[in-house]
Amino acid sequence: MFALLKMVACGLVLALNTVGCFSLMMPFALAKLVLPFTPVRRVTDRALAALAELWIGINNLWIGAANRAPWQVSGLEGLSPRHWYLVTCNHQTWVDIVVLQRVFNRRIPLLKFFLKRELIYVPVIGLAWWALDFPFMRRSSGGASARQDLRAAKAACEKFRRMPTAVMNFSEGTRFTPEKQAEQGSPYRHLLVPKYGGMATALQTLQGELDSVLDVTIAYPDGVPSFTDALAGRLGRVVVHVERRPVPAAVARAGARNAMQEWLDGLWREKDARLDMWLREPTLSTQPQNVSRSSHD
Predict the structure, then answer these.
(1) Which residues pair with 242 in a beta bridge?
(2) Strand pairing partners for 218?
(3) Which of 28, 31, 105, 278 gets the most CB atoms within 10 Å of its CB?
(4) Domain annotation covers residue 65
(5) What gap in Å lies between CA 213 and CA 198, rounded to an integer?
């Protein structure tokens, strides 16, 4: 019963927060739509990003209040909201997005996720995502649609040059499950095979702006949670490690497919070993890093 009450209370806070913040975004989104001029966009982009960060900050409050299990977070030193980053992470659950937003909010620029094109038609929220310059992709397997996706990704990345941005890419392309792992014949114990296309596009388009690549590993030692678990206070322990890496010149060049895949495979081997160590360790640190109450939220 207590978990149900938590879920209802957190769901209500989330709904009110979403309606309130996204309603405040609408005038700026409409101004950006009808007045597509650079001086206007400078103002609207900053206002929209600030409102999105407010939305995340309020979400962080209810997540921290409802879920008391500790978070073990490392690697946040030296990050800045005034730099450009490319962020990549393993993907197990939709809660990964909540975790990334909680860890990075106001420490780096607002995370920009690649979204399925169909999501642009979600009432109100779709317009907000468009106004925030989230790239919408068809996620096709090849042909003309794949070329359109590549053009859309490049166009989105060109927009990111206007102000500091953190481009988020789940390199596996989908959430990990044992069934998908077996279907792929993945060589990793805890990961799917990474795909280099999205990262290559961002690296090549944002050459000169990117400060570094943030290689993020997330683990849930008490079991992979659902978003319902987060609402009900059953999120469990969360372990996050951020590895800040320089942008390799060899993989940023156009056409460097082999170098890009080799580099990404190397990251994934390290990530898989880290996950294996964490998930085998019965007693991870029980001292939480107080992410939600940080001055950054």
Answers:
(1) 216
(2) 240
(3) 105
(4) no
(5) 13
Asked whether residue 15 is domain-assigned, the answer is no
Mean pLDDT taken over the chain: 85
For 151, the token pair is 């053009």
Token code pair at residue 216: 């993020």
- Using pLDDT thresholds of 50, 70 and 90, give the confidence band for residue 147: low
- Residues 235-252: tens digit of each pLDDT: 999 999 999 998 877 776
Question: Distance between CA atoms of 162 and 215, rounded to whole angstroms?
Answer: 24
The torsion of the CA quartet 114, 119, 124, 129, rounded to 10 degrees, works out to 10
Residue with tokens 């060589």: 187
Does a structural domain hold residue 36?
A: no
The whole-angstrom separation of Cα 178 and Cα 193 is 12
Element (H, E) at 112: strand 111-113
Rounded to 5°, the CA angle 267-269-272 comes to: 110
CB burial readout 213-248, b (16+ within 10 A) else e: bbbbbbbbbeebbeeebbbbbbbbbbbbbbbeeebe
Distance of CA 49 to the CA centre of its chain: 15
Q: What is the pLDDT of residues 99-118, one digit of tens each?
A: 999 999 999 999 998 777 77
Q: Is residue 204 part of a domain?
A: yes
Q: In 3-state terms, what secondary structure has residue 50?
A: helix
Q: Does residue 152 contact residue 69 with C-beta atoms inside 8 Å?
A: no
Domains of the chain: total: 1
